[in-house]
Amino acid sequence: MSLEKEKIVSNTKKYFETLTKIGVDTEKLTTFLGIELATAPAFATNNMPNVFEGGLIDFTLNVTKHLIELNTLLPEIKRINKDSLIKVGLLHSIGKAKLYTTNVPEWKAKKGVLYEYNNALASMRIGQRSLYYSMSNGIVLTEEEAQAIVFS
Fold first, then answer.
1. From CA 146, how far away is CA 152, in angstroms rounded?
2. Which of 24, 72, 118, 132 is the most buried (most CB within 10 A)?
3. Count of CB atoms within 10 A of residue 5's CB?
């Protein structure tokens, strides 16, 4: 599967508009991640979902939608603040935005590895990198939101 360019653009617009709607200042994040976030795959190997250009935001929007749906199934007293849930859902995987490269040897591509890890980056788990990208670009998080991002 792949996404049409128009869908990548509309998903990216929806992603940043949703964050802005819940009060997250996305200006620095947009500048920092920009096209890399818009075009990143969600995973590196074809045995996972959304392994294509634009897959990360597509996947993240779906995860966030499902988080909201699951939250509504909980008893009122156990529900998480919707804006907080959306913020965590949309930010939990942004650490993947600069993580993958398309420089894959042919033999790996034949085995389903469509992206390689960017070895120029410091070694961090996705949640840690997502938290780092969020906070270093001015996004204010509660302790619970930061924890949820790190452990997602």
1. 10
2. 24
3. 11
Cβ-based neighbour number of residue 46 at 10 Å: 16
**For 47-72, what is each residue's pLDDT tens digit?**
888 989 999 999 999 999 999 999 99
In angstroms, the CA 97 to CA 57 distance is 9
CA distance 137 to 14: 19
User: Scanning the structure block, which residue is given the tokens 């599967």?
Assistant: 1
Closest to 133 (Cα-Cα) out of 24, 12, 51: 24
pLDDT in tens, 82-103: 999 999 999 999 999 999 988 7
- For the question of whether the overall pTM of this predicted structure is more than 0.85, the answer is yes
H or E element: which one contains 31?
helix 27-39
